[in-house]
């Protein structure tokens, strides 16, 4: 599940080539070194200021490099903040993404220059974190800056997408286990996606997020994670994986039963736990998607289901269920998933299940989880 989008600045959020070229030319002239030509500058454009100085001074003594870096960091050499430009449609794209994801920045810029451009400063309100040169010991293509950004955003690295523009961004993202989209006129086969249009980023991010939903978390009998596999493989080979189950209840003890589009009866709400999710996140997502409910949930426990499913080619499907309960009334039903719902006495439903040997009326997993539910409630 994708939860966060992390952006580079130079070449992505800002077209800063002209401003950066002028800055380094002025810095080298002031400190007595040959300034870079326009033809030479692309090779150092994406380096940190410290690394760029090392290249331009041909690795002068460390003390000299640091002295020049401090001059560049201070106000002795001006930076034309009016030259950098944001991509066309940038503000609309960033605002749109901020409504669905946490946004962050990872850049080789020094901290003082992250938002010095007025055009980027205008977008600062959308970004939760900004990791700059001084924040880490190692820098791109090392993954440390991306790991640090994920930590500050309180997400796992695999729940992020990084938007960069050069090969070093791909190397850093791969080392961090992060999907990467390259925003550039050049194509990079190693990236997960490439685009020269900033406005296409939401579409590409959504596509990467949907790829994740085809995978499930493979676990052992004690619910220890063993890896990720495709849902189709898990069902075909009977590999144990996670499901979040929710029972909606009323004060009189009734439960909500869902009729699936196939006509078979199932839990109030249930669904696979996606890669990057925990059980509770999955349960709340399924409840909102299927029944339009947002509610606190009470955890009842776990049980394992091992039932033959007609809808899965009569394969034996193995799920580990974590079961939740809440008192709530259904809202709008998901048109493509839920045919209808009704309230029923759970013991009555359980007795009916005993006559459904081949699981034609009830979903097999529903039988196992309802038995657990009734036992937990001390009703059987």
Would you give an account of this structure?
It is a single chain. By secondary structure, the protein is α/β, with parallel strands linked by helices. The protein folds into three domains: 4-13 and 84-212, 3-Layer(aba) Sandwich (Rossmann fold); 17-73, Orthogonal Bundle (DNA polymerase, domain 1), CATH 1.10.150; 216-376, Nucleoside Triphosphate Pyrophosphohydrolase. The protein is 32% helix and 23% strand. It has twelve helices and 15 strands. It has helices spanning 17-30, 49-56, 62-73, 90-98, 118-121, 144-153, 167-176, 201-212, 231-237, 279-291, 346-353, 364-376; strands at residues 4-7, 102-106, 129-131, 160-164, 179-183, 193-195, 215-219, 225-230, 241-249, 255-260, 265-266, 269-272, 298-309, 315-327, 338-344. A six-stranded parallel β-sheet has the order 3-2-1-4-5-6, with helices on both faces. The protein has a four-stranded mixed β-sheet with strand order 12-9-14-13, sandwiched between helices. It is elongated, with a radius of gyration of 27 Å. The model has no long low-confidence stretch (mean pLDDT 92).
- CATH class category of the largest domain: Alpha Beta
Beta-strand portion reads: 15-25%
Query: Largest sheet, described in full?
Result: 6 strands, parallel
Number of helices: 12
| First-last Cα distance | 38 Å
What does the overall shape look like? elongated
Low-confidence stretches: none
Topology as a string of helices (H) and strands (E): EHHHHEHEHEHEEHEEHEEEEHEEEHH
DSSP helix fraction: 25-40%
Count the E strands: 15
- CATH architectural grouping of the largest domain: Alpha-Beta Complex
Category by helix and strand content:
alpha/beta
Return the CATH topology of the largest domain: Nucleoside Triphosphate Pyrophosphohydrolase
Number of separate structural domains = 3
Mean pLDDT: 92
CATH superfamily of the largest domain: Nucleoside Triphosphate Pyrophosphohydrolase
What is Rg?
Answer: 27 Å
Main β-sheet, spatial strand arrangement: 3-2-1-4-5-6
């Amino acid at each position: 599940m994708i939860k966060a989008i992390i952006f580079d600045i130079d070449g992505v959020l800002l077209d800063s080539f002209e401003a950066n070229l002028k800055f380094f030319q002025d810095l080298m002239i002031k400190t007595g070194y040959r300034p870079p030509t326009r033809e030479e500058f692309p090779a150092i454009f994406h380096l940190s200021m410290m690394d760029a100085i090392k290249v331009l001074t041909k690795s002068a003594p460390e003390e000299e490099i640091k002295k020049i870096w401090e001059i560049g960091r201070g106000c002795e050499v001006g930076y034309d903040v009016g030259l950098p430009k944001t991509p066309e449609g940038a503000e609309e794209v960033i605002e749109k993404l901020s409504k669905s994801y946490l946004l962050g920045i990872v850049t080789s810029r020094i901290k003082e220059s992250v938002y010095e451009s007025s055009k980027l400063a205008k977008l600062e309100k959308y970004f939760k974190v900004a990791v700059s040169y001084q924040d880490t010991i190692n820098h791109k293509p090392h993954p440390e800056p991306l790991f640090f950004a994920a930590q500050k955003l309180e997400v796992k690295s695999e729940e992020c997408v990084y938007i960069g523009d050069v090969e070093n961004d791909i190397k850093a993202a791969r080392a961090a286990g992060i999907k990467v989209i390259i925003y550039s006129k050049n194509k990079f086969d190693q990236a997960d996606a490439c685009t020269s249009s900033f406005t296409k980023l939401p579409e590409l991010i959504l596509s990467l997020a949907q790829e994740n939903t085809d995978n499930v978390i493979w676990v052992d009998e004690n619910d220890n994670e063993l890896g990720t596999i495709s849902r189709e493989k898990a069902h075909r080979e009977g590999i144990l994986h996670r499901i979040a189950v929710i029972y909606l209840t009323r004060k009189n003890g009734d439960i909500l039963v869902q009729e699936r589009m196939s006509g078979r009866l199932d839990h109030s709400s249930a669904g696979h736990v996606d890669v990057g999710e925990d059980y509770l996140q999955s349960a709340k997502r399924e409840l909102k998607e299927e029944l339009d409910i947002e509610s606190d949930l009470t955890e009842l426990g776990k049980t394992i289901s091992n039932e033959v499913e007609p809808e899965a080619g009569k394969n034996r499907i193995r799920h580990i269920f974590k079961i939740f309960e809440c008192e709530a009334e259904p809202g709008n039903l998901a048109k493509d998933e839920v045919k209808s719902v009704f309230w029923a006495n759970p013991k009555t439903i359980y007795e009916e299940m005993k006559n459904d040997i081949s699981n034609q009326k009830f979903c097999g997993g529903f039988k196992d989880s309802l038995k657990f539910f009734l036992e937990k409630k001390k009703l059987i």
